[in-house]
Every structure is written in structure tokens, then in C-alpha cells.
Amino acid sequence: MSQQSELPRPRSFTDPRALKQLGLFVAGSAFMLASIAVTRRSVVRKQVAAIPKSFQPNLRSPATTTADGLRGGAADPSSAEGSVMAAQALGLATLNVLSFAVMATGGVAYAFDLSNVDDLKRYARARMYGPAGRPDEAAEREMEEWVARVLSKAGIKDDGAGKAAGKKEESEK
């Protein structure tokens, strides 16, 4: 009878826990769509600006303002615009990565049935130490002895934790 109560029950989409997990995924998806729209708009704007205008007179160079405020000849537009374009590209890339991270976090939370940090800790301990969630003391002791043997064969003196573990073992006997 106790085995039947331990079996996981099937989740539904209307469960508050599932709604919280799916809410994060849906919010990440909406954020991702918005960041893609902003990125596409920026790219299209740069492409349209790069197309030469028809029927524009090219007899004189456009008037530009120099650093000292005087009007001068044509300046190199790529030097001033390059750093701005790089900053915009970095901002858009960061926005896209963060939106994907929020969406992926929501998807992973739903897939592994994680609702908060305590669930994540419980899941990680169960995967590392087994269903009990506690380390196996015999396995830990065996690993310490194996490491001590390997270090002694390599000629490395074990001064730190090895002696303390040895003293504990002697006092336990």
C-alpha cells in the first residue's frame, strides 16, 4: 500500500506548480520574441540606411561639423558610427542571450519539475548521493584511503586532512 502512495501522480497544466514553471517559460518566450523583433528592426534600419538615395546631388560634399564647431569638409563617417554600432550590437546580443536564458530556465524547470531552489537542491542530492540524499560514509572512507595510497606512491607527503582523518578513525575504534 505504501508503494502506491510513493508513485508520482501525473501532472496537469492547471496544477499551480506547473503553471508557475510554465509561466517562466512563457515569459521567456515572449521576451525572446520581443528581443528578436527589436533586433530585426535594428538590422533592417541599418540595411535601409546603407542603400544610396536616388536623385541626390553629388556635386558637393555634405557639410559636417568638426570637433571645434566649425563647418568643414567630409568627415569619415565610419569612425564615429563604428563604435556606436558596436555598442548597439553588443546590447542586442546581450538582450537575445538573456531572453533565451530565461526561456531555457523555464523549460528546464518544467521538464525536471523544479519550482524553487530547495527542489533543485533535493534533485541534485538525489542524483549525487542516491534516494536517501546523504553521502555513503563507507564509500567516502574508501575514496580517502585510495587517494592516500596514490599520494604515498607518488611521494607526496599527506600532512593536512589525511592525518586528521587517521586520528578520527583511531579515536572511533
Verbal overview:
It is a multi-pass membrane protein. This is Altered inheritance of mitochondria protein 11. It is found in: Membrane. This protein is an all-alpha fold and 173 residues long. It has two domains: 91 residues; 38 residues. The protein has a two-stranded antiparallel sheet with strand order 1-2. Strand 1 and strand 2 form a beta hairpin. Helix 2 packs antiparallel against helix 3. The longest helix has 35 residues. It starts with a helix and ends with a helix. The N terminus and C terminus are likely disordered.
The portion of residues assigned to helices is: 55-70%
Low-pLDDT residue spans: 1-5, 164-173
Summarize the biggest pleated sheet: 2 strands, antiparallel
Helix and strand composition category: mainly alpha
For the largest beta sheet, what order do the strands appear in spatially?
1-2
The N- and C-terminal alpha carbons lie at a distance of 42 Å
User: What is the number of E strands?
Assistant: 2
